[in-house]
Amino acid sequence: MTLSTELIFPGGLPDSKAYKLEAETLNKRIIGASCTPNDPAEKLYNEWQHIPSIHSNNFEDAFVKTILEHNVSQIYCPHLLLYKAIEKIILSNDLSVRFRNPPPGELETKKINTLYKSAIYFHKIASNMAISHQERLPKTEEIAGLIFYTRAIPGMTSEEKLAALASIFPVLPKGDIIEIGAYRGKSSYFLSWAARRYNIGKVLVVDPWDAIVAQQNDSPDVLKDPNQELVEDVSSFWESAHQGFLAALSPFIGHINYLRKPSQDAARIYSSNNEIQSSTFGTTKYCGKISLIHIDGNHDYNMVKKDCDSWLKFMTPGGWIIFDDYIWLHGDGPTRAGDEYLRDNKDNIELSFCFEKSLFIQLKQRKR
Ligand SMILES: C[S@@+](CC[C@H](N)C(=O)[O-])C[C@H]1O[C@@H](n2cnc3c(N)ncnc32)[C@H](O)[C@@H]1O
Predict the structure, then answer these.
(1) pLDDT, tens digit, for every residue of 37-76?
(2) Which residues lie with the beta carbon below 6 Å from any ligand 1 atom?
(3) How many structural domains comprise the chain?
(4) 283 and 171 part of one domain
């Protein structure tokens, strides 16, 4: 079978490099190209073509020759000017080659328009949930920025849930923000952004990033993955999750730290230390009282119960507890643990509701 050939031109733009990664997994023959002499991107490609500058008289001839000689069927071109020049050459030479991507200018405009639409939707959800303090919600452009960055982080937390969380932050008491279960840092990014935005306190993220601790024994086999078939190399998968987390959260140095431990061990460290250190985030001081906790670690009932027993004693009055996956397809750990917490602490609960799949609980200002 002959492989279809794609030209990535110019090969060194960030979008081109990202596209190349994707195209390689689809078993295509890829040729990189550039008008820049000695382009450093050349070393990234197995095949490379230097094409004269778009302003030179022989640009068109050289481009057509490359297409015909290498039997190129598709072109990926994220450069606006080049795209337009190539579009004309394809037409005037009646080439059968097609673009792999839409015109870059239109795509960029569409992306920003879509981002703002999502931000308006996000703001609407948050406004409906924050009747008493709507004016303190973040502005649409701040939300657009937040969505822009959180979308770049793989993870499980939906934008609807982030909007619900955003509605709480303007009225949170001061204190530490704890997250149990970060994975690659999607929700940690939001919590760090919001904690800094509203000057609530420092964020502490707890995750062992370890397949054995993350194993959920109460769930069906497809989730338990007893033969470790879900990913090719399980240890490099979790290392990359941890490294992705560090990279994603690095803008918040000074506002966040983490413990690479199971939740119970981390709680013991938190209870006896007001400072947590790591090489990425340096030293972070915590006040020892929790303003908001997001429980999103191992969802087995006994593990969620341990999260509650280890951490909820540090809650500050008026603080919020969020049980992720209170409604869950793969088991009932968060439901049982959440319901038990509601039952055993009913005198201290100001408000509780289920939004999307999470249980949100606000504690009373004064403890009974
Ligand atoms: C569902 S993911 C978290 C998703 C994340 N909050 C997001 O927004 O994408 C669950 C995470 O919990 C972590 N985890 C599993 N067992 C844990 C435990 N005992 N203590 C803390 N974290 C745990 C896993 O390593 C995994 O990264």
Answers:
(1) 999 999 999 999 999 999 999 999 999 999 999 999 999 9
(2) 155-157, 180-183, 186-187, 206-209, 213-214, 262-263, 296-298, 303
(3) 2
(4) yes
Backbone angles phi, psi at 214, to 5 degrees: -75, -15
pLDDT, position 327: 96
Q: Mark whether 335 and 239 lie in a shared domain.
A: yes
**Domain range holding 174?**
155-363
* 345 and 253 share one domain: yes
Residue 252 counted as domain residue: yes
* One-letter amino acid of 307: D
**CB neighbourhood size of 28 (10 A):** 16
**Residue 39: CATH number of its domain:** 3.40.50.20
Report how far residue 157's alpha carbon sits from residue 88's, in angstroms, rounded to the nearest whole number: 44
Task: Give the residue from 101, 132, 165 where a domain finishes.
Answer: 101
Nearest residue by C-alpha to atom 5 in ligand 1: 182
Q: Whose CA is nearest to atom 18 of ligand 1?
A: 262
Give exposure, 237-254, as e/b (b: 16+ Cβ within 10 Å).
ebeebbebbeebbeebee
CA–centroid distance, residue 295 to ligand 1 (Å): 9
Report the mean per-residue pLDDT for the chain.
95
Same domain membership, residue 326 and residue 229: yes
- CA-CA distance, 358 to 368, in Å (whole number)? 26
